[in-house]
Task: structure prediction
Amino acid sequence: MIKRIGILTSGGDCPGLNAVIRAVVKCVNRKGWELYGIPFGTDGFLDVARGKCNPQDLLLREHGYNIPGILRGLDILQFLSGTILGSVSKGNFNQPDIAKEILYAYELMRLDALIAIGGDGSLEILHNLAQLGNWNFIAIPKTIDNDVPFTEYAVGFDSAVDTVTRAIYDLTFTAASHERVMIVQVMGRDAGHLGLNSGIAGGADVILIPELVPQLSEAIVEGCCTKIAELTKTGRRFAVVVIAEGVKNERGEKEKNIADRLGELMTLKAQELCQTKSGIFCNLSSIETRVTVLGHLQRSGTPSANDRIMGTAFGIKAVKLIEQGIYSQLVIWRYGEVDHISLEEVMPIVREAHKNNQCAAPVQPDCFMVKTAQELGIYLGNVE
Result:
């Protein structure tokens, strides 16, 4: 029996999404099934419901010009960043009329199942829709924040770590050349996985993430200055600081460019320490800070080999689950291989976290990576 499968990407883009799509296309076509690429997340469903898009125009084939990336037999899809299907990171899904149109489009397309690639926010929305419409639903995690519970890695995280690590490496040389403190702001609204991993890999001297440093207290700023002052005793006249965007300012408020505020506070504290404590702190009296906000560069670049491999494995696993009739599952990476877990276990944790404005899978203060950073002498804040 020919199955009609839908696939979409939702939320912020990241490297590796096209590797997932490519794997699903190949796997589905080998089975003789039909795969429909829903453009721009659930917005594609709205276009179908409103007659702006013919479902047959969304059919994806392994060979043909209707799937970007294939030209004269050259398959480059797995090497491309972003998503060929497009994505949306916001939607009016709480409006009953919008949800009704999406559910209608799903029925109009006569889909037997839907594969959705998204982060924890997107997956909560799509899972709610799947329950309303009684969809056969499979979720694949993707996020450079790596904050989807139950999976060790999400698609896009490894590539983002590589991108940030390269940036830290490059900035280290200009920091050394001018004897400056380079402050690098990375993404991580509530999760510090990206900052912690890339900071370790890039050789940062200070790493500040929201799980360990909720806000820039006076003690934290002094700790940063103390760490840099200690480096001067070894002959170092520069430093690299990594801070996640989720760290709040000294008033407990979020700032768009928190790295700028950290630089200002460190400059003031360095002058104060020189006046009151003297000694090595006077080496900081003329401290120069420079800020680099990496922004959406972290979402770009060629997908890493790990993201291509894992994304491919995720896509194939999703198709196999559909073939076996196992639905309402989150495909995960655990113990070095692909696995799956029921969304009925995952979603209560995600919903509770969102309700409390918390991260669903935060960095644990006693985790291996935190201990690794501590053993390297990286300043992480007041962490025991």
In short: The radius of gyration is 23 Å. The first helix runs from residue 17 to 30.
